[in-house]
Amino acid sequence: MKTLFINACVREESRTLQLCREYMKRHWEKETVTEVSLKDSLLTPVNEEMLRQRDADISVGDFSSSRYDWAKDFADADEILIGAPFWDCSFPSMLKVYLEHVCVNGITFGYGSDGAPMALCKAKKLIYITTAGGYLASPNSLELYLKELCAMFGIGEMEMHKAEGLDIWGNDVDAILKEAMENL
C-alpha cells in the first residue's frame, strides 16, 4: 500500500503535526509512507509561463518532467493524509500552491473523448487533520473545497479530524488534544 502524507505544518512543534504522527502510527506501516514536507519544498505559485508549459505537455501527453512528480505521487497513492493548521478560515497558502501543482489534466483527472470528466487517482480515501485556535463553522469552506477536489480526483471518502478551541482562554488544551487523538 502506498500512503502519502502531505505535511503543511510550518512549526516543528505543531499540534496538527502531533495529531498526524499519531494517526500514521495507528493506521499505517511506517515504511509505506512518503512524506511531502511543504515547508521544505521550493513551492512556486503557478504562473502564466508554467501554464503554457503544462498545456504544451498535456497536448502531447509528455509528463516526464520532474514538475509533475507531485501529481504522479498523488495519483498513485492508495491513501492520502493532509495535515495543515487552520489559518485565516482555510489552510496555509503553501498547501493551495501544492494542490495547484497536483491538479494536472492527464495525471490526477482528465476528460474522456466525449468531454466528460474522468477521475484518475487511485486513492479511495483522503484524511485531513487540522487544529484551530478557535472553532470551525459547520459546514466550512475548507471542507467543501476538499470534498470537491476529492470528487474531481475520484477519491470516494474524505475524512476530517480536528482539534478546536486550542487558543481559547480557559480551555484545557491537553484534554482537547487527547480527545482528538482518541478519535483518530
Written account of the structure:
Helix content is 36%, strand content 19%. The protein is of the alpha/beta class and 184 residues long. The protein has one domain (3-182): Flavodoxin domain (Rossmann fold, 3-Layer(aba) Sandwich), CATH 3.40.50. The strands form two sheets. It has a five-stranded parallel sheet with strand order 2-1-3-6-7, sandwiched between helices. Strands 4-5 form a two-stranded antiparallel ribbon. The two termini are 20 Å apart. The mean pLDDT is 94.
What would a concise description of this structure say?
With 184 residues, the protein is an alpha/beta fold.
Topology diagram in text:
Layout (H helix, E strand, L loop, with lengths): L2 E5 L7 H13 L5 E5 L10 H13 L8 H8 L2 E5 L9 H10 L6 E3 L5 E3 L5 E7 L9 H13 L3 E7 L9 H10 L2
Parallel strand pairs: 1-2, 1-3, 3-6, 6-7
Antiparallel strand pairs: 4-5
Strand order, biggest sheet? 2-1-3-6-7
Q: Regarding CATH, which class?
A: Alpha Beta
Between the first and last Cα atoms, what is the distance in angstroms? Answer: 20 Å
Task: Classify the beta-strand content into a percent band.
Answer: 15-25%
Largest sheet: 5 strands, parallel
Count of DSSP strands: 7
Q: Please indicate the count of domains.
A: 1
How many helices? The count is 6
Shape label: elongated
* CATH fold assignment: Rossmann fold
Return residue spans where pLDDT drops below 50 for at least 5 consecutive residues: none
Query: Which bin fits the share of residues in helices?
Result: 25-40%
Task: Give the name of the CATH architecture.
Answer: 3-Layer(aba) Sandwich
Mean pLDDT: 94
Element string (H = helix, E = strand): EHEHHEHEEEHEH
> Radius of gyration in whole Å, from Cα?
17 Å
Give the helix/strand class.
alpha/beta
The CATH H-level homologous superfamily: Flavodoxin domain
